[in-house]
Structure formats: C-alpha cells, structure tokens
Amino acid sequence: MTERFADLAAVVLDRPPRLGPVRLVAVDGPSGAGKSTFAARLAEVLRAAGATVTTVPTDDLLDGWDDQFTFWERLERRVLAPLRRGEPGGYHRYDWHRAEFDAGLTPVPSTDVVIVEGVTSARRVIRAELSFSVFVTAPAELSLARVLTRDGEGVREPLLAWRRAEAGFHDQDGTRAAVDLNIDGSDLAEGFRRLPPGRTIEE
Asked: Residue 198 needs a FRET pair 20 to 30 A away by CA distance; which of 67, 87, 139, 171 works?
C-alpha cells in the first residue's frame, strides 16, 4: 500500500524537537536508494504544512571518497552543535569535480525541521536527538544504475567499494532495525511503500 508524504509530515511535526529547538530528521540508506528524492518530497510537504525546513545532504560534507564515515565530526561541529544551542550552523560544501571545499559558507538556519540526508545519517551517535528517522532501500541493480547514470561510469570502481563499506556499516550499526520507518525507494512519485522493520526490499 502506498502511503502519503503529507501524512508522514504530520507525524514528523507531531514529534517534539530533540536537537535544541530543532526537529532533526535523518534519511539514511545505501547509495542510489532514493534518499535525496525522499528528502526533497518530505521537505516539500512539510513546507506546505507551514513548517520551515532546511535539508543538509551529507555528500556535501565529505572530503572525497575516503571520508565515507569520518565526515561526522565536521557535521557535528559545524551543523549539529550550533543547532543544539539554538544557533544557525553552516558548512563549506565539497566540490566533487574540483576535489576541494568551496570557500563560501552554506548556511544551515535553525528551522522547525532540519533533514540530514545521506549514508549513515541515522547512525547510533545521533539517535537520541532524532525526532524521526527513515531508511530508504531499493534493489541493488537499480541503485547502482541510478548512481552511474547520475555520476558516470568513471565512479564505478570507488562506488562498488563504497557500497560494500556502507552495507557493513549499516549492519554493524543496526540502522535498519533502529529507524522509525523503512521504505522502498524504487518509485517515490506518488508516495512511498513501507517495508517491515529491519528488512530491505530484497529480503
């Protein structure tokens, strides 16, 4: 059964803020699963419901392929810690083409909802401060094809290593079993399909 983003937005807004005055929402899952699309759709309906929303893609904070998990200190220091204090945050966006961080600061205001979208965004260290968390999954072949279509065949080798590492992290971290909602990211045009807790679409 397809569920509506508007209904999910009502659930999120009914949750109390847990990161200072902010409702922090994590949209986690493997690469190419549909996290960005899901986060964008959720942000849209939250705004339609009258909430102020900021989205932070964790890919913008990575220092290249080797920073798959260790970027978190940067996210904590520049985004989460200020928001926890009720202050705006900001970060330097990584330019994947130039392989360096932009000089300018991308602001992260203290809005009603802040959506952190990306691999490991619902990791154990932040769970107590999340108002809501989602794990998006999709068939492996579809996820791989999405990333290669977006970024080109040149990323295939680092991407395959990345996918093995992210699967190991999610298993060790217990992410799928800990989130509030597991969903199928294969088709998010009309809504989303809920998956059983802790399961992927292929299980």
From this structure: 67
